[in-house]
Amino acid sequence: MCIFCKILNNEIPSSKIYEDDFCIAILDISQATKGHTLIISKKHFSNIYEIEDEVLSHIHVIAKKIALMLKKTYSDIKGFNIIQNNEPKAGQTVMHYHVHVIPRYENDDLKIESVDHSDLYDLKAIQKEIKKSI
Ligand code: 5GP
Ligand code: ZN
Question: How many A from CA of 85 to the centre of ligand 1?
């Protein structure tokens, strides 16, 4: 059984801040920033490829609810990163669908960087390639 299923089964303790029929929200043990929360589906789905559409949509509505809850709790929150990783290459370490809600503060030291590789790729060519798969 995966670690999040164990948390859902109360075999491992967690700091739960929200629960409904489809998901729970717990504080991430790593606390990338204060209030870093994970929204976890109650049913085990490994990733975005597997998760049922209804649960997926619901979890993202709850991400909004949690962000607003955290913002109400900590007035110094200046923004949020909502992150969801799929497969180890993308940083997924727990293979049970979850969404990170990460509050951002003025002087936090969290780095989520974007890079500009626009010189390497031709948008029109990529668009054509992807459209072939639809
Ligand atoms: P991922 O890297 O798969 O997107 O995120 C997994 C997250 O789960 C990590 O941020 C990690 O800190 C968190 N995590 C792993 N084990 C536990 C645990 O036992 N309890 C809690 N609350 N968080 C955990
Ligand atoms: Zn699981």
Answer: 11
What is the value of pTM for the model shown?
Answer: 0.97
Are 47 and 97 in contact by the 8 Å Cβ rule? The answer is yes
> How many domains is the chain partitioned into structurally?
1
Instruction: Print the domain residue range for 10.
Output: 3-133
Strand 77-83 and strand 37-41: pairing? Answer: unpaired
**Apex 80 CA angle, 76 and 82, nearest 5:** 155
Residues within 5 A (CB) of ion ligand 2 = 2, 4-5, 44, 96
Distance 44 CA to ligand 2 centre (A): 4
pLDDT tens-digit map of 44-98: 999 999 999 999 999 999 999 999 999 999 999 999 999 999 999 999 999 999 9
- CATH (domain of 90): 3.30.428.10
Q: What is the pLDDT of residues 5-53, one digit of tens each?
A: 999 999 999 999 999 999 999 999 999 999 999 999 999 999 999 999 9
